[in-house]
């Protein structure tokens, strides 16, 4: 019955939720866990890839939030706060494992001649497809290509083009200079562009 | 066909830039200090973030007008960036549909053992 009681509280408003969490209300905590775990797990998976490690990041995030709830100030929602903690836990893990070092992806990057002219011709991207099925196929294809990118580049894409962090925030979280962050992001996007070009040359077999 | 100095970029398909495009570009470079493709490439992140000053911004825009290759490149680059965001957001929707109960239980158990820890007094 515990579970249905928790679900019955699904509509708790944010202020009430925070107040109950601060009071140590176990049901409010469970409600929060049920509400946020899916999203947090998706965020962690995008960074750490390994399922057990992603679980650990989410669990760590909830525990840190539990311990720090007294100091929580509602400038953002509890969900957004947890999201941030989860991302930081995942980045910490990647940094500890030194998986963010820059590996070469030169063959995916554009090249220039000695006068600085672009060497490769670029295909014009096709418009958005109309059918949902086709759009889903494209998203799957793009995801499979994002997965090919080395960790450091994928992380740059996730933080900037998905999470919407600023260059400075992302650079700080990754422990690199802002300039290096921009270069990394640019390379990640350029490499991904090259990898997904089959989408607009019509040569997608994946 | 040959020797007509075709202005159609990429018509040859072997990475050769049209002669006209090159000439036009050199003139523009002389007149307005237009940037090269490589310089253009280096300014894209700041350009798309809206972080460039008016002069640098204008240089990027001038280059896209003059260089059909970079115009297409910018289109494709911007598209890739948006598709990446869409693709990753989509994986989040999938995850929301299946929240693993073992993880939920693990978190609840960890919280319980945490609250039993005697650090509060």
Q: Could you explain the architecture of this structure?
A:
The complex is a heterodimer of chains A (206) and B (121). Chain A has 206 residues and is mainly alpha-helical. Chain A folds into two domains: 3-96, Rna Polymerase Sigma Factor, Chain: A (Orthogonal Bundle); 106-201, Winged helix-like DNA-binding domain superfamily/Winged helix DNA-binding domain (Arc Repressor Mutant, subunit A, Orthogonal Bundle), CATH 1.10.10.10. Chain A has ten helices and no strands. The N and C termini of chain A lie far apart (46 Å). With 121 residues, chain B is mainly alpha-helical. Chain B is built from six helices and no strands. The termini of chain B are far apart.
Task: Output the keywords.
heterodimer, A: 206 residues, mainly alpha, Rna Polymerase Sigma Factor, Chain: A, Arc Repressor Mutant, subunit A, 10 helices, 65% helix, disordered N terminus, B: 121 residues, 70% helix, 0% strand
Quick overview:
The complex is a heterodimer of chains A (206) and B (121). Chain A has 2 domains: 3-96, RNA polymerase sigma factor, region 2, helix turn helix motif (Rna Polymerase Sigma Factor, Chain: A); 106-201, Arc Repressor Mutant, subunit A.
Shape of chain A: elongated
pLDDT averaged over residues of chain B: 77
Question: What's the pLDDT, averaged over the residues of chain A?
Answer: 86
Order of helices and strands of chain A: HHHHHHHHHH
Q: Quote the beta fraction of chain A.
A: under 5%
Which residues of chain A form runs of ≥5 with pLDDT under 50?
1-9
Chain pair with largest interface: A-B, 57 and 54 residues
Instruction: Specify the overall morphology of chain B.
Output: elongated
Helix content of chain A: 55-70%
What is the share of helical residues of chain B?
over 70%
CATH class of the largest domain in chain A: Mainly Alpha
DSSP strand tally of chain B: 0
Pairing-aware structural class of the strands and helices of chain A? mainly alpha
Terminal CA distance of chain A:
46 Å
Determine the N-to-C terminus distance of chain B. Answer: 89 Å
């Amino acid at each position: 019955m515990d579970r249905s009681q928790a679900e019955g509280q699904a509509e708790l408003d944010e202020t009430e939720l925070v107040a109950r969490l601060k009071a140590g209300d176990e049901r409010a905590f469970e409600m929060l866990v049920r509400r946020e775990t899916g999203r947090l797990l998706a965020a962690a998976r995008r960074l750490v890839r390994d399922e057990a490690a992603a679980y650990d990041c989410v669990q760590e995030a909830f525990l840190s939030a539990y311990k720090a709830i007294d100091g929580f100030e509602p400038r953002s929602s509890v969900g957004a706060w947890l999201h941030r903690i989860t991302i930081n836990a995942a980045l910490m893990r990647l940094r500890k494992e030194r998986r963010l070092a820059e590996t070469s992806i030169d063959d995916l990057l554009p090249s220039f001649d000695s006068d600085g002219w672009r060497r490769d011709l670029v295909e014009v991207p096709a418009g958005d497809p109309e059918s949902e099925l086709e759009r889903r196929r494209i998203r799957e294809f793009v995801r499979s290509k994002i997965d090919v990118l080395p960790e450091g580049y994928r992380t740059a894409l996730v933080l900037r083009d998905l999470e919407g962090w600023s260059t400075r925030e992302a650079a700080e979280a990754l422990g690199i200079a802002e300039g290096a962050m921009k270069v990394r992001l640019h390379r990640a996007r350029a490499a991904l562009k090259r990898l997904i070009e089959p989408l607009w040359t019509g040569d997608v077999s994946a | 066909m040959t020797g007509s100095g075709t202005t159609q970029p990429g018509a040859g398909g072997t990475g050769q830039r049209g002669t006209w495009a090159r000439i036009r570009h050199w003139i523009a470079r002389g007149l307005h200090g237009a940037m090269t493709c490589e310089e253009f490439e280096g300014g894209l992140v700041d350009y798309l973030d809206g972080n460039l000053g008016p002069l640098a911004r204008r240089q990027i825009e001038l280059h896209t007008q003059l260089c059909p290759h970079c115009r297409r490149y910018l289109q494709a680059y911007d598209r890739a960036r948006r598709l990446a965001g869409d693709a990753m957001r989509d994986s989040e929707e999938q995850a929301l549909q299946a929240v693993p109960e073992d993880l939920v239980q693990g978190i609840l158990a960890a919280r319980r053992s945490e609250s039993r820890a005697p650090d509060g007094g």
